[in-house]
Every structure is written in structure tokens, then in C-alpha cells.
Amino acid sequence: MLLRDSLPIDSILAELDAALHRGHAVLQAPTGSGKSTRVPLALLDADWLAGQQIVMLQPRRAAARLTAARLAAQLGEPLGEQVGYQIRFERRVSARTRIEVVTEGILTRRIQHDPLLSGIGLVIFDEFHERSLVADLGLALVLDSARSVRPDLRILVMSATLEAAPVAQLLGDAPILRAEGRSFPVEIRYAERPPDSDPVRAMVAAVRQAFAEETGDLLAFLPGAREIDRAREQLVAQLAPDSAILPLHGSLSAAEQDRALRPAGSGQRRVILATDLAETSLTLDGIRVVLDSGLTRKPRFDLGSGLTRLVTEAIPHASADQRAGRAGRVAPGVCWRLWTREHEHGRAEQRIPEIRTADLAPLVLELAVWGVKDPLALSWLDPPPAPAWTQAQELLRTLGALDARDALTARGRALAELPLHPRLGVMLLDATAAERQMAADLCALLTERDPLLAESGQARAVDLGLRLDALHTWRTRNGQLSGVDRRRLEAIDRIARQVQQLAARATAAPPSSAPDSAVPRTAGALLALAYPDRIAQRRSGADARYLLAAGMGAELPRDDALAVHAYLVVAALDARGRDGRIQAALPISLSEVRTVFSERLEQRRDVFWDAERAAVACRLSTRFAALVLDAQPVALRPEDNASAYLLTQIRADFDTALNWSAAARQLQARVALLRQQDAAGVWPDWSTDQLRETLADWLGPLIATHTRLAEVRQLDLHAVLIDRLSWAQRQQLDQLAPHCFTTPAGNTRPIDYVSGTTPILAVPLQELFGLHDTPRLCHGRIPLLLHLLSPARRPIQVTQDLAGFWARGYAEVRKELRGRYPKHQWPDDPTQAQALVGGIRRRRVSDSTASTS
């Protein structure tokens, strides 16, 4: 086929034709080389193609439409003739179509219906460096088909920045062809200061400066549609009236995207605010300046929570280079990177393949349709991670798409026919005819951009019911619509109608949760079909904190109106933090939960620890997964083993749960002292750690019939422990480590084994008169630590050497205390004096009489 306007890719077209004649191939060519718009046309008349169709995959809908339009324009034909396209809910093809540009999901549907890919001779994977999950799946399926049943089918993988060698190896050591690009020099400028924490504020300032200093149209990359809307609102008010501020992202309608891609009118300069949609495939004429925030927003699946959240992250070097290249398509240009040279370091070289970070439920379902239970049965650049694969299988079993052996069910086959996540597919298929429109509306709302506009400084309301109401009002044209984006409502309405038509044609298994009556379910009850694991129950005593059926915590934004509801169904949840942040939800009543999931409710008799009563209790509960829907107290049974719960609580709070009286602690310490002196191992280990560890052995039998901690605290722990010693051990204990000491005055004083490392005897000094040396324990091996007390019971000396005290310290003490306590006896030689109780010698009556006669 004769093509005009020479492009850099033309130099290798003959070599590419020859390579594909032999087998598969990999083409690496820079952006602007013409690979997307030249290669399919150049290969259309190849002998090896034998008149069959070429299918070219584009990762984005806008790129698919635009690429098809430019291919058709080169042939001088309208779309739908030799060149057509098909994207989700949009198709422009005919019986004459030889080149069909499709998004990746369309190929998956086609090969599932026709594994032979009848009539197709070449499948081109364009912009494969984006490594979307669906592209990896499509390549695995097409490669499997080519190897098993279609040896004549050819595969061509094209990219500007992809590492080609691994792809070539995957394709059976396919040849790698490289082409030069056609571009002009691009000057790279970096910011002088670290990037602003607000990318919109930084971008608006940069656009204003570049608009004043540079010439030509500007292309500004921002992470998402939300930032684009904010930046556009500010720039419309700040730039010259002859400027056209145009958004470009995947959520826009085809007409809005085409407007951004068309050259500006006479005398106008365009400022295109784009997501990474504008990185590849799309040619934007007239762009001389690129301003790059260096950010993108990608979905990341959190394996721990089972949730997908959008993450704003730094782009890799390959993306930064492609963005910069947009400024050099038609003339020398400049790229302003809104980060410093220092921030250049640490960026990844390539994008992270989505298969590593995505929810794999759609992929697992597609492979089940293909007949694959083990992903390693296919060839992958990056195989699906095993944990995410297992979690996806569990979800699909819950949704009824897979059976217990992970084989595809009739319901699963019907779900695979729908261009929706399996969760939403279940809701759509299980809806009755009367409920189908609402189910389709919910599907559209959850897959398209939010139509509610956030007020400045405020978070959007969580309630999906507000969106449903706005959609209904928009359709009926009644009332005033404020705070909503009508264009988004229009897109949602279009998608909802298409989804409803698909549901009407779907051949599904009988609904698993059809209502018993003819009354349609509420929106919340329908949404629960898609998200049974995200039914949320408000926590006791918390206004905005909930527990999900899956066991996770979740909370509403502050002051959100949905907090009045005891039960919610959560459709969108940010998994960051201790409790996920609820972003989209609907209320559901307890009776609806019981009705919709009657077959999943579980009656359970639960024995548990009642912390408020400090007792073991039992209740009969109705549960839905982790949620207790209701509970009634019931009596405990002997087989409930209440003592085990008591022992758990005692073990957790060992020092206060038991009645550790002073006598019990003394006994514990006395035995510990003897154990230290015990070379033969006669004495037990009654340390706190050991007693806690062996709690079931020594305390368990005594509390077998108890249910309350108060009953356990009534046990005499001293008696419990002493009973564990033999008669001989008790005799030895009293002999070697007696609990008290009888002073020479005949008074009994307790020995303190607990307060220190050495047993302590606190005794009035005068009760030890006549005692020559320190009393000792354990056959004289351990001297007591004497706390010698004054008549006022205040310590005057601490010693383990009583003889030394009598000899060296007593005289000084006697001198001081004799003046303070003159009525007390203070002998010169305490070792020869009589010990006194109270320190005063009492006169006998006979002595008193004699003295007065």
C-alpha cells in the first residue's frame, strides 16, 4: 500500500514485514516515529496476512478512537470502512473492516468467544510499556492460542520505552526491531526549589510564567481529573482571554477529548491540562511547552484489606522522558519539570506492571473462562502474585462465580460476559426486572466520575443516594440542579442505559437472593449484593465508626449525614490508617440484611469474657460474617469450660486478679529463699512467671465450677499454696525460714521476706538486750537484716552484724536515746542486760510496798 508523508518508521517496514512472515516480533520506536499510524497500514497487504484482519490494541479509549481516525484519514475513508474501532459501549466497524483498533478488554471478550481468533492474522499490542493488567492478560491468551491452535497467528508488541528483551524471550526469542524517532531538541528545565505540596498551586504558577515567557501551545501534566478541574478553574480567571484552557482525561466524553486534541482557532493559544493519557499514542499538534508535575494517580490493591485505593505517586523516568518528548514534535521545545534535579534520583526506571498491584478478581474470572486454574499454565512477563490470586479466588467463590474446586459456575460465565467488575456484575444479574434500572445506575455511578461537585474546603458527601437522586432529577428535567456536573450525569446516564441493555440480554444463573415479595429492594440492599463483605455496622458508642463484615474498621468523614444509620453498605473505602475512610456508601436496614443474606446468617452460641461483669458469659447470637446482628444471654453449660476463660483473664492480669495477701506473698518469698539454697532441687519454683505459666495446673482444679473473677478472688491464696507442700516440706519451711522470730524479751516479731533481697527483722533495740549475735536462717547460712528501732519505732540502725553494733555503735546510740527516753533502760553492757518489752523495767508490788514502809 502506497503511503504519503515519509515517517521514521518507514525505514524498517520491510524488515518488519519479513520478521512477521517468520513469526512474532517486537518493535521499539520512539514517540513520533509513526508506529501506531503507519505499521498497520503498511502490513495490510502482506502475503503472510492472507487478507485477514489486523487487530491493534490501545490501552486507552481516547487513543483508540483517535488512532483509528488517523488511520482512516490516511486511506481517505470514513471510520467504519477498512479501518474501524471498538471500545466499551462504542463500536464503528463494518463487514469491510480490515484494521480494527480496540481497547484491551474488547480483545479479551473476543478471544473468550472465539479462541481461534478466526479471521484475524495479526494482533498488535501498542504502547505495551503501560503494562496494564488487561494487556498482560490479552498477551497471555493470544500467545496461548497461537501456540496451541493458531500457529499462523502473528503477534507484534510495540512500545517506545519498554524493555524489549524480556518480551522477545516471552514470544519465543522473537526479533527486536528498532526505529529512530522524528523529534526536535527539547530543553529540560528543573525547579530551583523542592516541589510544592499542592501540585495544583505549583502548576498554575508555572503555567502563568510559561505562558508569558514561551511561545506555542502548552501541555501541563497533572495527576488526576480533580487537580485538572481545580487548575482549569483558576487559569480561566488568570490567563489572557485569547487562551483556551482545555482538560484532557479519560472521564471526558469523546467530544470533549476531541476538542482538546484539535488545533486551536486562529489567534488562540491552547493550555491543555492532561493526565498521563497524553503521554503516548495521541499526537498533539502545536505543543511547544510541556509542564510536568511529575505525578500520576494509579489504583493500588491493598492485599491486607482487600481494597483498591488510588495512590498519587511519582512517575518513572520513562514516563518523564515521554512527557518531555511531547514538546519536540513540531519544533524545538522546552519541558519544565516542577521538581529539582535532586528529586530526579530515586525514581523508578519503568512503570510497575499493574498485575503486581491490582485486584486480580477480574483476571482470575477470565482465566477460569479460559479453563485455567493455575496461572502458571500460561506464559507471563510477570506472573500474578500468589497471595493476590488466592484472595481473588476467595472473593469469586463468595460471589458464586467459582465453585468449591475453583471451577467456573454458570453465574461466573454470565459475569464474565459483562464489562464490569464481578462484584457489580453480581448486583446487576441478581436484580429483578423492577430493580434493574437502579442496579444499572449504581454500576454507572461507581465506574464513572463522581457527578457531585465538592464545595470549597469541604469533603463530598458519602451518600450514593444523593447521586441517584441527582441522576433521576436530570433525567426527568424537573427541579433545579446545583452542585452537580451535568456532563458527568450525561455520561453516567449513557453508561447506565448500555449496562441495562447488557443485563437484559445476559444469560445468568437463577438469582441467589431474589426477594420473596414483589416489592423492589432499596438501593442499599442492591449494593449489598456486590459488597457483602463491606456491610458495615456502627460500633457501640461511636457515631461515625463502623465494623465491616470482613472484620475491618471504617469511619465516615466528620459530620457526614450517613452517621445516623446503624448499618451501611460501603462501595468505596480508602484503606489507609487504622480504620478505612468511607468514601461512598448507602444505608441498609437490619431487616434488609437479614432478608438479602438469610442463607448466610449463622446462629452461634458464643462463650466469651464479659469485661463489664468480670465474668464468663454465654450468648446466642445471629451473625453475618464478623457482624453480630443480635444476641441473647443464655446459661452456661459444663462443657463450656468457663474456667479456661477465667484462667486467660487471670494470666493476663496475674498480680491483681488473685487475692495476693501479705501472707501469700510472704510464703512465696520464703519458698523462693529456700529454693536459692537448695542444691538438691527439693523446693518448687513459685516465681511469678512460673506460677503464671503453670496456672492451669495448680489453680485450674480449684476454679472448675467458677464463672466470675470475684469468686476467684475469694480464694485464700496462702492456703492454696501451702497445700501444695508436703508435711515434711512445711516442717522444714518453719524450721529453716520461719515466718517470725521470738526475741530474748519473749515477744514474737515477723520476718519480712518480701521487701528486700535479704529477710528483714524489724525489732525494738531493747528487745535484743542479752543477744550476742545476729539471728540466722537456713542452718545459720543467712543472717537477718536487722532494722533496730527506737522506742518510737523509728529505725536507728540497719545491720547484719549485731555483735559489731554492740561493740562499736551502741554507745553513741545510748548517749543520744538516754536523754530522749529517760524512763527507758539503757545499760552500759547490752549483751549482759535483760531484754525488755517496751524498754521500761516494771517494778513489782512488793518492791513498791517495801520502799514506802
Describe the fold and architecture.
It is a single chain. This protein is of the alpha/beta class. The protein folds into six domains: 171 residues, 3-Layer(aba) Sandwich (Rossmann fold); 168 residues, P-loop containing nucleotide triphosphate hydrolases (Rossmann fold); 145 residues, Four Helix Bundle (Hemerythrin (Met), subunit A); 111 residues, no CATH class; 91 residues, no CATH class; 95 residues, no CATH class. The strands form seven sheets. An eight-stranded mixed β-sheet has the order 4-3-5-2-6-7-1-8, with helices on both faces. The protein has a six-stranded parallel β-sheet with strand order 9-16-13-10-12-11, with helices on both faces. Helix 7 packs across helix 8, helix 13 crosses helix 14 and helix 15 packs across helix 16. The termini are far apart. The C terminus is likely disordered. This is ATP-dependent helicase HrpB. One of its GO terms (molecular function) is ATP binding. It holds the Pfam family DEAD. Keywords: ATP-binding, Helicase, Hydrolase, Nucleotide-binding.
Offer a concise description of the structure.
The chain is 35% helix and 20% strand. The protein is of the alpha/beta class. α14 (422-430) crosses α18.
Q: Percentage of helical residues? A: 25-40%
Overall tally of structural domains? 6
Largest sheet: 8 strands, mixed
Helix/strand class: alpha/beta
- CATH H-tier superfamily of the largest domain: P-loop containing nucleotide triphosphate hydrolases
User: How much β-strand is present in the residues?
Assistant: 15-25%
Estimated radius of gyration: 42 Å
Number of strands: 31
The third-level CATH topology of the largest domain is Rossmann fold
How many helix segments?
Answer: 29
Q: Biggest sheet, strands in spatial order?
A: 4-3-5-2-6-7-1-8
Question: Segments where pLDDT lies below 50 for 5+ residues?
Answer: 843-853
> What spatial form do the alpha-carbon principal axes imply?
elongated
Overall pLDDT, averaged?
89
Termini separation comes to 155 Å
